Amino acid sequence: MSDGPVVSGQLKKFVFRGKSLNNGDTRGDYLEIVIPELLSAGYSFYTWPSAPLLAWYLWSQRKNLRGLRILELGCGTGLPGILAAKCGAHVTLTDSVALPRSLHHLSGCCEANGLIPGRDVQILGLAWGLFLADVHNLRPVDLILASDCFYEPSQFEEVLSTVAFLLDGTDSRFLCAYQERSTDWSIEALLQKWGLKGALLDLDSLSESSGIDYRALVGDRSLHLLEIVAV
């Protein structure tokens, strides 16, 4: 996987509003995030379908995010992590250390939303499955995020081994939005191998708490929210 060619892009806007009150007044519960996207470039230069779903779930939990230590893995344009930072969390955004242009683009996504890398958010290149000093320094963490990190089956164990290391001995959790692309793909055996357990979250509750129909976000895609914790 490469960073992709340098191409012109566009701004994509994501608007998050609070659940409407009886009089329709949602003032004070509004957040707008703009993401510069390069649609002809590599994986990490545009917002994958699972990221808005994860971001909306976080928005529904926004009152609980302030002060949390949050880490996003393979974040690409960083929509969920940027939202968490705007809601008061201490956020570290990470993507592959082998994709320096992607990390630079991620910095631009943060800056487009008034977040200064190194001050308001931290940005770090990681190599999944390699427990180097940078990974050790990420602990402790309260919540780990990822969207569409289960895309390449050859990398499933690298992702989960990293998550297992970060969750070990804690009551923290890994919240992952993903698109089901093949019924033949499963992480059950890897969860057991790495001392983890997972459960799908009820998307109907997202609609109730956020006031948005999650089906409008999902469309005809098989998108899911998975919560993983250490056994």
From TrEMBL:
This is Methyltransferase-like protein 23. Belongs to the methyltransferase superfamily. METTL23 family. GO terms for molecular function: methyltransferase activity. It holds the Pfam family Methyltransf_16. The keyword Flavoprotein does not apply. Transmembrane segments: none annotated. The keyword Transferase applies. One of its GO terms (biological process) is methylation. Keywords: Methyltransferase, S-adenosyl-L-methionine, Transferase. GO terms for cellular component: cytoplasm; nucleus.
